[in-house]
Amino acid sequence: MLQTNTAGTSDYEQAIAEAKAAIIAKMTLSVGKDPGYATDRDWFVATALAARDRVTHRFLGGKRASKADGKKRVYYLSLEFLIGRQLTDVLYNFELYDIFRAALGDLGVDIERVREAEPDAALGNGGLGRLAACFMESMATLGIPAYGYGIRYDHGLFRQVIKDGWQQEFPETWLENGTPWEFLRSDVTYDIRFGGSVETKTVNNVPRFIWHPSEVVHAVAYDTPIVGWRGSNVNPLRLWSARAADPIALSLFNKGDHVGALSDQARSAAISKVLYPSDETAAGQELRLRQEYFFVSASLQDLINRHIRIYGDLYSLPDRAAIQLNDTHPAVAIAEMMRILLDDHNLRWDEAWRITSSTFSYTNHTLLPEALETWPLPLFERLLPRHLQIIYFINNLHLEATKKNFPNEPELLSSVSIIDERDGRRLRMGQLAFIGSHTINGVSALHTDLMKETTFRDLNRVYPGRIQNKTNGITFRRWLQQSNPGLTKLLCEVCGEEVLDKPELIKRLEEHADDPALQQRIAKIKRANKVVLCKIVTDRLGFRVEADSLFDVQIKRQHEYKRQLLNLLETVALYDAIRSNPTADWAPRVKIFAGKAAASYVAAKLIIKLANDIAKTVNNDPSVQGKLKVVFLPNYNVSLAEKIIPAADLSEQISTAGMEASGTGNMKLALNGALTIGTLDGANIEIKDNVGDDNIFIFGLTAAEVEERKRAGAPTATDNIAASPMLRQVLDAIGGGVFSPDDPNRFKPIIDGLRSQDRYMLTDDFDSYWAAQRRVDELWNQPEKWTRAAIVNIANMAWFSSDRTIAEYAEQIWKVPV
Ligand SMILES: *Cc1c(COP(=O)(O)O)cnc(C)c1O
């Protein structure tokens, strides 16, 4: 029961009154507007500022406490933090959501509109960046003192617009009007140096290296508080913004060169303008390396300052700090740490190396050869001459030791060396990260096994025992509790309120999997979520989809290995089959796609056009009305994911086996009751192990079979196509211009690619995928059985909470108590 205070109003009502007063005060005094004239955005800012005040007290209190008790801190270095909108996260995790909704309601304002007025912080590209965001939330929840370090991009990733079916890129302007969440820390500014030369001096018979850089840029800190569940703890996400050391060349300006006077400013500020500038040009490549060093150097200077301030010297750094490298993007940190210890603090090499290699750990996210980062030596030397010296030194010691331990295997050296001698000599950041870290982790059981067998096989022999697995996870606060309140309410009723703190209690749902009443409730919740998505489709695309259809969802970055194309081939085959056999038991489907392609990725952009061209044909064909629709929702981001995922019936996870390191979209969808159709790849395997073979649709070659076929070179794509009349018909239709009558040859490159090379083995898996989709139809036509399978999925997803993942990192990699 709510308590009543002496004034006669309940605590709850008083809390609402306080929230109302706080919002109005912010509206008047901070936004500077009369509430009568406020826009939705004004309400968002006022509400966010009122919420932020609550956070700030906890934030500062937590910082004082962890400083006082000398706890080990975790530093998570990532080029991406895909945090999305913050308002609901903050209010919900502080258990203020209902209070603020009521307060706004009393003011005549719908909180839903206020939420929508917040721009997405699109500081990431996909799964890797979203993982960093989920991890920050879980670290706060588990009370681990942590800093996230990254870049405060003015524009993040681009905004995707679909024009005539083609992807177009426009700058994302999330910071246009500032953001109420961050605190500018002008006093936390560091010099970041680039270029120049290195002078060698001998002092007391010891060689010293003095770097004379040719350029200095300032890194300025902005802190965004990340709130843990139930407000338990608040950690900073510290993002660096680039500024010129001299904002204006006054002498040039006074000579009348007003543009030239600002050119240094523009060159410096470019560093924190956009995520993933195109690296097709040399200038683009250089900018990318400048970004990486910029945020790494600022972050290390910052954490070392903090350590020295509290503990006095650097010898104890490994006991007080754990630095996690999210992929190789921040791997230059190994060299930067050594430089700081050797040159700025005069430590001996062995001592510096001991500190460095017992502080760092590295997460590998991909084994695709084209995605493993390397830098041309001349570029690296021009930008970071001292770091290249240090890397050569690290490499020499490493190769000497390897030679000694493996005297009969000289060929081992070229594989474990940091320098790739082929291809014009390049620095391999994966090798550097591996050699400089005490622990290297993969992100799913399969991916970790493949790491040991392929890319890092030899390094794993030289440094055995360093590789561990940490299967990814997702935060249930955002991906269940906030995005699917209907399902959350039911889970609280059936499994008990404690389920919000102990996800393993979701398992209790399974006891009721056969209960028709529960099945009906689950189906009703799903349907309500689908109605919300239907409205989004109508608003954004201008046509209707039926909530009673099967919502078949593939939402993720557009990439050939993820095989959106395989899904499109099946869509065309289904379209043909429905037309030839209209009375068969097809499950009525809406195929839903969303995802961005990298701006320079021509093949992926053509596949987006294909999806849109197929959609146009299918959606306008009356003969498949009510049976098939195709939807491409533009500008996939966290907020759109939060709407699509609770509404999904089927989750497409169909990458070529061995290529998706983990996936996390697969986890979000299964947790929300979508059944997975997927290959035995990444975390799909662990999802299958948890939900059981009967509650997932598995198809296609295994990773081992993929390797075997590649080795054997057979069967070829030609063989596969010859063996499948249906596939041949689909390829002929697309290649012959059935979906592109305005340009019949438009998709020829796609079809020719499949016929000649088929790098991602679509023709090998097509028939098996088709058969799995028909098993989907069959189950969909038995609604009780379908819902039962959905219930079993939800009930068995607790292990995929990022709280579990982070607890494993804490215990086994970082050695911090939880
Ligand atoms: C979870 C998520 C991803 C990752 O999806 P995958 O299917 O694992 O590739 C990408 N983008 C956004 C916005 C996400 O929320």
Compact overview of the structure:
The chain is an alpha/beta fold and 818 residues long. The chain is built from 33 helices and 24 strands.
Structural class: alpha/beta
Strand content: 15-25%
The small molecules bound here are: pyridoxal-5'-phosphate
Question: What gap, in angstroms, lies between the N and C termini?
Answer: 33 Å
Poorly predicted sequence stretches spanning 5 or more consecutive residues: 1-5
What is the correct CATH architecture of the largest domain?
Answer: 3-Layer(aba) Sandwich
**CATH fold description of the largest domain:** Rossmann fold
- C-alpha-based Rg, rounded: 28 Å
Helix percent band: 40-55%
- Give the tally of structural domains: 2
| Overall pLDDT confidence | 96
CATH class of the largest domain: Alpha Beta
The CATH H-level homologous superfamily of the largest domain: Glycogen Phosphorylase B
Shape: globular
Protein name: Alpha-1,4 glucan phosphorylase
Organism: Terrihabitans soli
Family: Belongs to the glycogen phosphorylase family.
Function: Allosteric enzyme that catalyzes the rate-limiting step in glycogen catabolism, the phosphorolytic cleavage of glycogen to produce glucose-1-phosphate, and plays a central role in maintaining cellular and organismal glucose homeostasis.
Describe the structure.
It is found in: Cytoplasm. By secondary structure, this protein is α/β, with parallel strands linked by helices. It has two domains: 70-85 and 120-472 and 807-814, Rossmann fold (3-Layer(aba) Sandwich), CATH 3.40.50; 476-712 and 763-800, Rossmann fold (3-Layer(aba) Sandwich). 48% of the residues lie in helices and 16% in strands. It contains 33 helices and 24 strands. The structure holds pyridoxal-5'-phosphate (PLP). Pyridoxal-5'-phosphate binds next to α6, α24 and α25.
